[in-house]
Amino acid sequence: MSLWDPMFASSAKEIISTLDSFQPEALVIYDDGFNYLTKMCLTNMREAAFEMSELAGLRNIPVFVSGSDAADHYEKYHNHGAVAVIRGEGEVTLTNALQHYFAGERDLSGINGLSFRNNGKTIINKPRDVVKVLDDIPLPAWDLVNIDTYKNAWLKNHGFFSMNMSTTRGCPFKCNWCAKPIYGNRYNSRSPENVIKEILLLKNNYALDHIWFCDDIFGLKPGWVNKFAQLVEENHLKIKFKIQSRVDLLLQENNIEALARSGCDTVWVGAESGSQKILDAMDKGTKVEQIKDATIILKKYGIKPAFFLQFGYPGETEEDIQKTIEMVMELLPDDIGISVSYPLPGTVFYENVKHELKEKSNWTDSDELALMFKNTYPSEYYKHLQRFVHKKYRRHQGASLFSNMLKGQVPVSKQNLKRAAGYIYHIPGEWHHKSQMKNIAGNSSMYSSGISGAVQTTKAFDSAAFTYDQDFTHTKSGKLQREVVHRYLRNNIDSYIYKNVLELNCGTGEDAIFLAQQGHIVTATDASKGMIEIAKDKLLRSNIKNEVSFIHMPFAGLDALQGNSYDFIFSNFGGLNCASPYELQKLAITLSKLLRAGGKFIAVIMGRNCLLEKIYFTAKGDALNKKRRKSRQPVKANVAGDEIDIHYYSPDEFATMMHPQLHDPVVRPVGLFIPPSYLEKTFSKIPGLPSSARFMERFAGIHPAWSDYADHYLIELTKK
């Protein structure tokens, strides 16, 4: 038997040399069942497992897999070559499966606790009972691990050597967001004597300084922690360790005092939230008061409290968020870990939001922090919130440490001075992320609405269809602004490379016909039947044949086009300003599916700062309209007698809503010197102004930053 440990590997391909030199009879891919990151089923970890499985398959090596993700998504692993997937605890099931397989018996139907493929069909066997007496399981084969590699890394980066141990399996508590795909709700524990035996082995063989007990809950059984402390003292063990626990359990018996006696250095607790409403919604079973009491007592006994925090749980409001922040700043734990709510398969939480996970159900890596379901704020808000809380916490922590040094309560040392300096160091970052949160929160009402802005405006644009060309397309402003857009398309979008074009909100077909004349094949869509009818009539009167198809289709219907691959998607003159931020984020996912790799998305959007509009309304003394584009709420606009919602976006805001599906924004102003069409009469009255504006507009694109001050801006994004 040989162990290939990928901890320090940079690529799954590094397993090749081991496969070729050791030539195993089987490859077992075994996930760490105590690691929350494996429960999260990060796609980079899953893809690494797939690649290792396929590399083994190329060498005719059978593959057996055990892990949280494999248990939840066994079909995916079978599709990538896994002979069997262990569903539950692995020791007994894996041993039986390997013995069976090596004996030449390929039918694994008699072995409980796994799934396997038989003639292309997946068979799921009965579950296996959990192991109840954990002392019967032999101690880990530490001799297979290259301990020196770990030890050197620890000593270099931390100055001490720590190893991981587990003393329990399972968790009987019912937090509705926590998955238990391997060990379930049963709680079984090794005896304190058995744990001490392993500590002595590690201490004697590897001279470790510290242990991270990675159990979900350390020492749950009554009397366990006290017995463990007694044995530590009897064996004269001097060792520090950290654990995970619950605040209610810490307050029972004399657990905290016993932990201090046995060498506990840090206790991580799932504080989660400072709002009792959210804790109750999670079925956490703990009280905010217990978090405070446990923190105070831990500090009293010299144990460092650390908080796991979770933002973004359904129903969480700004008030709940503030309660969590206030709790952290009041209690100042030694450390914090922040995540956003993550739907894990098999949980009540997952069942409640799974209908929203069609586009994205896993993070790529643990730093992604994407909120994969609809909540009070968009995903970007929670990313800034995570950074804001960290910065604010470190600033408060630095201030507290500095105060304690002045009082003589902690020593003045280089390390403490460095941490105290965080009071100043973290202020700019805290302000920045708070500002970003405030800007995003300003759009919260727009995010919370699932009603399509495009659908709301259909009636208005049907009514406006017959006068649209007269009111905009054929005005001097309209013609000159469209000329700017068309010039950009001619210079940057080659019809040989970007042949197939999808146009959104095509209006009366002016751009679709232009694109067809440039050699593109165009599919043009609009939510307004009236607009589509006029566009079709315009096409019949043109010389374009079979190059343009007009389809009545709102944004919400674009999924019907899946299966097509477009080279270039286009939207002109503010059609997307009828969509809320929430709808734009959904649209970005759809567009990414419709675009080929390397394809372009170009949109012309009404921005937040139109300089000519501000000058006009300032001259009129109309302060309200002068600031209307700055509003974070939808602005009412009159279209053919109907009021519709218009959302204004800066280039940065629009690019953020398209990310991460679309990348590398290129921005150009449209209408920096050419005014909005509603100023047509004023514009035309001044002799020479239209021609002067047209001339000056040709130079506006020199500085992309000027896009912030134009009537519209053109933004080009790419699918990688």
In short:
The protein has 720 residues and is an alpha/beta fold.
Strand order of the largest sheet: 16-15-14-17-18-22-21
Tell how many strands the DSSP assignment holds: 22
Described by the principal axes of the CA atoms, the overall outline is globular
What's the name of the CATH homologous superfamily of the largest domain?
Vaccinia Virus protein VP39
Number of domains: 3
Structural class: alpha/beta
DSSP summary: helix tally: 30
- The fraction of residues assigned to DSSP E strands is 15-25%
CATH architecture of the largest domain: 3-Layer(aba) Sandwich
The unreliable regions are: 445-455
CATH class designation of the largest domain? Alpha Beta
Helix content: 40-55%
Arithmetic mean pLDDT? 89
How would you characterize this protein structure?
With 720 residues, the protein is of the alpha/beta class. The chain folds into three domains: 6-124, Rossmann fold (3-Layer(aba) Sandwich), CATH 3.40.50; 134-376, TIM Barrel (Alpha-Beta Barrel), CATH 3.20.20; 447-718, Vaccinia Virus protein VP39 (Rossmann fold). Helix content is 42%, strand content 17%. It is built from 30 helices and 22 strands. The strands form five sheets. A seven-stranded mixed sheet has the order 16-15-14-17-18-22-21, sandwiched between helices. The radius of gyration is 31 Å and the shape is globular. Mean pLDDT is 89; it is low at 445-455.
